[in-house]
Protein: CoA transferase
Organism: Alicyclobacillus dauci
Amino acid sequence: MWPLEGVKVLDLTQNVAGPYAAMILAEFGADVTKVEPNSGDATRSWGPPFWNGYSPTYLALNRNKTLVSLDLKTPDGKQALLRLLDEADVLIVSNRPAALKRLELDYDTVSKRYPQLIYAEITAFGHYGPRQMDPGYDPLMQAMGGIMSVTGHPGDEPVRVGTSVIDMGTGMWMAMGVLSALRLRDKTGQGHRITGALFETAVGWMAYHLPAYWASGDTPHGWGSGTAMIAPYEAFPTTSGWIVIAAGNDKLFRDLSCVLGHPEWSSEENYKSNAMRVVNRVHLHEEISAVTSTQTSDFWIQLLVDAGIPVAPVADVAQLMENPQLQASDLIQEAFHADIPNFKSVGLPLCIDGMRPPLRTVPARKV
């Protein structure tokens, strides 16, 4: 038995953040009904590539849901939605406030009719401030929230994190908020309003960059594959690719220095503490790279693993699929799909009592 069995969720959202939140709830056993417009969720057209006509984005975010297509601007569509709401525990929305008001799906209207409903809304900026009525998308928030400024190499053009960390992060926060609200409703008997904001998720991911700015007055910037406050903690070249070495404390750096054939590094004034290594990180990176670039990734990984030094290859997706650690898990799940032979999907990266939530229902065809 999964923890949310018996909980009914209506997912009125599109794109990434809302569908991801609803999918997390579905993974925990909730009965999630995705309500799409007759034209379908916008992500259905995101591509190429397409997998036998299906967008990979749509497939990734809409497993374990049932699908209903409704035109909420028509009386019939509105009545059908109200019938669904009569049985629902949770409603997830992500339209802009004006659109919700026109559809009579704003919180004030819905909560009067359904006082026990958990009303979960994903917004761009929340319900305050000068931009509360504006739309928002993942790259805009990575830009505004400072994420791009600490990503990539110093002086290069802005770089977006290569996955939708703002959208998916907001979806995760929303799922946690819904779980908390359901627990609270058990105590109060009343519904509750949960609001998430893409902009605030972006700022939340800057949680340690902001204190660094407050402490120093210096604006943080990107360090390529590295991080601002630890060195060496980044990618280094080899003859066959790249490896990431994470020597995050003085002992690990001493061990790394020995493995690389330069035990004297750990006693040099410029490298004897993490603070000094951060200050002198550029020269340190050059020295380590000069050594690692003489052998293959496999060679260094074996030596460093044997020495207890955290290391990993920089893998592409094809290499990831060959990773024995991934193959040992059941994270990649398979199920029958009428249109996609050998359908696979990425499960929830979480287990309960050693069991991962299963893939029960593949993402639905457009109705």
